[in-house]
C-alpha cells in the first residue's frame, strides 16, 4: 500500500450516509434503538432458532447505524460517548437479550479496531465499499511469533459472538519467542489481537446452549498466516491511534460497559413482562389477580428498586470515568475498579430480578415461545462470562477499602 493511500485514513473513508447520521445527539441514538425495538422483538424467535441474528435484525441495525455508533469519526463512524452506547445496547437487549448481546459484540469490536489498529489497517478495514462489522474472541486462543513486517500465527477460538454477519474477525494470540511467552514489563504475557478478513477464517459452529442462543457465538479457527503489524494491537498496553478520550479507558472498560448494558436490558424486560402478566393472571386456587397479592407487591417493589439502583450506579460509574478521561486527568484506580464492581454487581442484581419475575410468571414463564422464559435463560448464561465472575468483587475490594479508610474519609 502506498504512503499516500495510507495517509488518507486521516479523513473518513466513508462519506456520511446522510446529514441526519452526523452529530446525532444522545437522545437521537436512543430514539434509533427504540425505533427498531418492535422489529427486534418480533424477530426474537427467528434469531433464537437460527442461532444468530436474523437477516431483518441485521438490516435494521445497519439502517440505523447502530453498528458504527461508537466507531471513531476519523474512520467513518459516529464517535458517540460510551455512556450513550450503554443505553443503546440496553434498549436492544430490552427487546431481546441475544440481539442486544450480538450488537454489543459487534459495536464494541468494530469501535476498538477503529481506534487502535495502524493506519494501513484502518484504511483497508474501514475504507472499502462494504462497511465493516467486526467480531471475535480477543482472549488468547492462539500463538504468534514476530516476523519481518508483522506476525505469523494461528489459533482456535470459542464464543465469537456476532460472527455470523461479521466481515472481519479478531483473535488474541500469545506472543512467543524461542518457544516461550514474551512478557510485558509487569511480567504478564504479551497478547497480540490480530484482525483478518472473514475469508481467512474457518467457522466450525458449536453453539448449542441454554440461553443467549441467538448470539451467533460460534467457534472459529484462524489458520497459520501472516498478519501485518498494522492489523494487530497489544491487548494490555494500548495507545489509541484515533477516537475520543474514552478509548484511553482501555478494553476492560469497553467490555464492562457492554455486559452491564445487557444485564440492564434483560432485567428491565423481565420486570415489564411480569407487570403485564400480574395484571391479567390469577394463581391457581386464587380469586384475585397476582398484582393484588401483598406478597407479590412487596417483592415487585423490592426488585424494581434493585433495577433502579443498578441502573443508576452503572450509568454513574461509567459517566464518572468517561468525564475524567475527557478532562485529560488521570483516571484513578478506584474509578476504574468501580467499573468492574458495577458490572459484576449488576449481574447479581439482574439474576435476582429475573428469578423473581420468572417465579411469579407461572405457566407463562415456561410455555414456548415465552419472553420471560427467554429472559431467565439469557440472564443465567450471561452470568457465566469471565467479565462478571464473582472473583471480581473480591479483586476490587482492596482498592475500595483504601477509599473508605483513607485520610479524606
TrEMBL record:
One of its GO terms (molecular function) is oxidoreductase activity, acting on the CH-CH group of donors. The keyword Oxidoreductase applies. Residues 258-389 form the Acyl-CoA dehydrogenase C-terminal domain. SUPFAM superfamilies: Acyl-CoA dehydrogenase C-terminal domain-like, Acyl-CoA dehydrogenase NM domain-like. InterPro entries: Acyl-CoA_DH_C (IPR013107), Acyl-CoA_Oxase/DH_mid-dom_sf (IPR046373), AcylCo_DH-like_C (IPR036250), AcylCoA_DH/ox_N_sf (IPR037069), AcylCoA_DH/oxidase_NM_dom_sf (IPR009100). Residues 1-10 have a biased composition (Polar residues). Keywords: Oxidoreductase. Residues 1-24 are annotated as: Disordered. It comes from the Bacteria. The keyword Acetylation does not apply. Signal peptide: none annotated. This is Alkylation response protein AidB-like acyl-CoA dehydrogenase.
Amino acid at each position: 500500500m502506498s504512503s499516500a493511500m495510507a495517509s488518507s485514513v486521516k479523513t473518513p473513508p466513508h462519506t456520511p450516509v446522510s446529514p441526519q447520521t452526523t452529530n446525532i445527539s444522545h437522545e437521537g441514538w436512543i430514539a434509533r434503538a427504540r425505533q427498531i425495538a418492535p422489529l427486534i422483538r418480533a424477530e426474537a424467535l427467528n434469531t433464537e432458532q437460527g442461532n444468530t441474528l436474523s437477516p431483518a435484525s441485521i438490516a435494521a441495525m445497519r439502517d440505523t447505524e447502530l453498528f458504527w455508533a461508537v466507531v471513531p469519526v476519523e474512520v467513518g463512524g459516529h464517535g458517540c460517548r460510551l455512556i450513550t452506547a450503554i443505553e443503546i445496547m440496553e434498549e436492544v437487549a430490552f427487546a431481546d437479550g441475544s440481539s442486544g448481546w450480538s450488537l454489543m459484540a459487534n459495536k464494541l469490536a468494530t469501535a476498538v479496531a477503529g481506534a487502535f489498529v495502524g493506519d494501513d489497517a484502518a484504511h483497508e478495514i474501514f475504507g472499502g465499499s462494504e462497511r465493516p462489522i467486526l467480531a471475535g474472541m480477543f482472549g488468547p486462543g492462539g500463538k504468534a511469533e514476530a516476523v519481518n513486517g508483522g506476525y505469523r500465527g494461528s489459533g482456535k477460538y470459542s464464543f465469537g459472538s456476532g460472527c455470523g454477519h461479521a466481515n472481519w474477525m479478531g483473535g488474541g494470540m500469545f506472543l512467543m519467542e524461542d518457544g516461550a511467552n514474551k512478557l510485558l514489563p509487569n511480567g504478564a504475557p504479551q497478547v497480540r489481537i490480530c484482525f483478518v478478513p472473514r475469508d481467512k477464517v474457518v467457522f466450525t459452529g458449536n453453539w448449542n446452549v441454554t440461553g443467549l442462543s441467538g448470539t451467533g457465538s460460534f467457534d472459529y479457527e484462524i489458520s497459520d498466516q501472516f498478519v501485518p503489524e498494522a492489523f494487530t494491537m497489544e491487548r494490555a498496553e494500548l495507545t489509541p491511534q484515533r477516537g475520543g478520550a474514552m478509548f484511553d479507558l482501555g478494553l476492560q472498560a469497553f467490555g464492562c460497559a457492554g455486559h452491564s448494558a445487557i444485564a440492564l436490558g434483560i432485567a428491565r424486560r423481565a420486570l415489564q413482562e411480569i407487570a403485564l402478566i400480574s395484571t391479567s393472571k390469577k394463581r391457581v386456587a386464587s380469586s384475585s389477580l397476582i398484582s393484588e397479592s401483598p406478597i407479590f407487591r412487596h417483592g415487585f417493589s423490592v426488585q424494581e428498586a434493585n433495577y433502579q439502583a443498578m441502573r443508576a450506579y452503572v450509568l454513574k460509574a461509567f459517566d464518572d470515568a468517561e468525564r475524567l478521561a475527557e478532562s485529560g486527568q488521570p483516571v484513578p484506580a478506584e474509578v476504574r475498579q468501580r467499573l468492574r464492581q458495577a458490572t459484576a454487581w449488576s449481574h447479581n442484581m439482574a439474576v435476582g430480578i429475573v428469578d423473581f419475575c420468572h417465579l411469579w410468571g407461572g405457566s407463562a414463564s415456561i410455555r414456548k415461545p415465552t419472553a420471560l422464559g427467554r429472559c431467565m435463560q439469557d440472564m443465567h448464561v450471561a452470568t457465566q462470562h469471565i467479565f462478571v465472575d464473582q472473583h471480581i468483587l473480591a479483586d476490587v475490594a482492596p482498592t475500595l477499602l483504601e477509599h473508605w479508610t483513607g485520610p479524606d474519609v
